[in-house]
Amino acid sequence: VPHFRFLTKNDRKKIKLKKNTCFSYLHTDLDPGSSKIKYILSGDGAGTIFVINDKTGDIHAMKRLDREEKAEYTLTAQAVDRDTNKPLEPPSEFIIKVQDINDNAPEFVDGPYHATVPEMSVVGTFVTKVTATDADDPVYGNSAKLVYSILEGQPYFSIEPHTAIIKTALPNMDREAKEEYFVVIQAKDMGGHMGGLSGTTTVTITLTDVNDNPPKFAQSKCHYPLDFETKKSYTLKVEAANIHIDPRFISGGPFKDTATVKIVVEDADEPPVFSSPTYLLEVHENAAINSVIGQVTAHDPDVSSSPIRFSIDRHTDLERQFNINAEDGKITLATPLDRETNMWHNITIVATETTILLCIAMSYGFAIFTETHLFVCFMVIQIVSAVDKDDPKNGHYFLYSLLPEMVNNPNFTIKKNEDNTLSILAKHNGFSRQKQEVYLLPIIISDSGNPPMSSTSTLTIRVCGCSSDGIVQSCNVEAYVLPIGLSMGALIAILACIILLLVIVVLFVTLRRHKNEPLIIKDDEDVRENIIRYDDEGGGEEDTEAFDIATLQNPDGINGFLPRKDIKPDLQFMPRQGLAPVPNGVDVDEFINVRLHEADNDPTAPPYDSIQIYGYEGRGSAAGSLSSLESSASDSDQNFDYLSEWGPRFKRLGELYSVGESDKET
Description:
The protein has 666 residues and is mainly beta. Helix content is 10%, strand content 28%. The protein has four helices and 33 strands. The protein starts with a strand and ends with a helix.
């Protein structure tokens, strides 16, 4: 007897186990609590679905268990010595059964259903039976206990809650009043209680006819109109019999006779018929002009099936807001529509059979017409015939056909008529002599003799100019003058190109002008940056009262702000105050550093390197100013010998001035 004890937890409450759930554990009586015993597990799902703690014997489920996939697992547990792996007890086999929960809804596998029942049936007449299945366990609990009910279809039909048999619930249902019924059936598990899952299906029930209506004439005096397109002839059998027969002559009977009467219906030209008597078209009020808003269709009920041309009765469209394509019946907008002005527009469309204007001349020969000319005006439908000099007993029967390469001819086709003639039809209208004047249509004709004879002739179809009465006016080639004017689209394209070129030229000139302008706005009163021309003579170098010469030498006294033209500052800053005059000991290097610091902290300065111009000559030089404008002494008082100490270039300058003094004295 194994010494294992198989212990479970919440055996009846845990139906489906979550991952890593410890639902049971094994324990041997030989386990004193030491770590020398090792538990091992084998069998269905061991190591994958079920794992065992080798020290404690706890069994864990690593996956969720689904009873519908596998209802039970057979496992084997054993306790072995951890060091030697020798069995301490015989293996113990146990079965893990997965208990069911209600996790599957009922399903109608064979739905949707179709059934029939005779009309006028009594209440309770069997209609059909439906069946639903539930994948849950039918033994455990109420998970698979189904109850049926009707969601749609009352009060005409009912269903048995447990057998799912559908029956009639209303008497005297008339097929002539309503022939088909749509019924929705629901199946709910858990015995139909709250919390159960449900599934639905549909049953289409059709009432079958029974003879419950006596015959009745629609009219007391029957008038049946004959239609050539529906039936061209009728055959009647008429019998005449004597009602009262003289017994003396009864042996000479029968006193009746029969005759067969064949009624042939002649064709009459009927007007075109629209596919619908009224059309309702919806269009947005902002729809574009020439946009298609709808289409009407019509056909010729006659056998000839003449082409149809469409038009608008302008008495119903006085403002000409709509147009229609005469060929295909597509209706388009001619002017914009305004819903606030007029919400509805009622127009009348007229369908007319296309007038067939034919001017035809042809001659006939053996088995088929020879070199035949057909003059076409607009659409062409013409019936031609052929002759045969033979005289068969049963009459002539001709077969017409086109050459194989002409079967897909896009312009013309042929159709054999019942009276042994041939109809030539045009597949479209709008033939143009400028495009093509003559068309050739080879036709093959065969007779019904033995052996059959055949011949081929070409039908020459010439496009001519005809009047509205069908009279040929001209069949010669007319000069066709192309319009020399440009279309509106071409004019718009040319105008757009010209405007684009003008815009490019204006932008180019603007950029060139902007590039040539300096970045700094110069003050017209700044004598350092402008050349001023005068027409009078000054007093020479001694005339120092004409302008302030100190402005050219000392910029410290200039207080002002030179705005930039290459930027537009977000904020308007007040002109910065000029720096205080620097002492005479400040050299050019220090002056430049001061101006550089000022430019770096200027919020209106551009965010890139720029050239700053200053008219500062510096101070503290032993040579003093080189400008003669400020000289207060005459040239004779100056000595230029010290320039030779400044280097070769200044030494040459001093020599030039010295030479000038010598020449002057001479």
